[in-house]
Design brief:
Elements: H1 12-34, H2 38-49, E1 53-54, H3 55-61, H4 66-78, E2 82-86, E3 94-98, H5 100-109, H6 112-122, H7 127-147
Antiparallel strand pairs: 1-3, 2-3
Helix pairs in contact: 1-6, 2-5, 3-4
């Protein structure tokens, strides 16, 4: 290989991607019992924290584009979990609110984090090890969010 830095084993991004995919796959059986997907679970968590939010606020909190979140919310509306209404001040804005069913799901969903920690323990990861990742990942996320608008061509990499 001409460029060692291009080896998959040298990539931080691949480790983050792999960990993210594996964690998301681990959620699947727990969320299947609720009849929802991982992205739907994320939207519900945002709404359980604070109901009646504009679509663009939900997208911002999930680090997604509005055009990614809108079809997701439309599917959730068909499932009876949320409803969308026009904004009062700006009628172009869509406000997403939990339905009775969406609110009721919170009680069952509250069991998911403990199930995940149990699964991690079954894999040999102690709760303390998992929680040590939180501040480090938060730091990575926050620093990258601050620089996502930088032009790739202007990055200062050594050649």
């Amino acid at each position: 290989m001409a460029f060692e830095q291009l080896k998959l084993s040298s990539q931080i991004c691949f480790r983050l991607y792999s960990a993210s995919r594996l964690v998301t796959q681990t959620y699947k059986p727990f969320l299947d019992k609720l009849g929802i997907t991982y992205p739907q679970y994320l939207v519900l968590m945002v709404l359980w924290e604070a109901d009646n939010q504009p679509v663009n606020d939900i997208a911002h909190k999930l680090l997604l584009e509005t055009n990614t979140v809108t079809p997701l919310i439309q599917r959730m509306e068909k499932m009876g979990l949320v409803i969308r209404t026009k904004g009062i001040v700006d009628t172009r804005q869509r406000i997403v609110s939990l339905t009775k069913e969406g609110k009721a799901m919170e009680k069952e969903a509250a069991k998911v984090p403990a199930c995940m920690l149990e699964h991690f323990a079954d894999c040999g990861l102690k709760k303390e090890e998992v929680f040590r990742l939180v501040p480090l990942l938060d730091e990575v996320i926050n620093r990258l969010k601050d620089h996502t608008k930088d032009d790739f061509t202007t990055s200062k990499t050594k050649k």
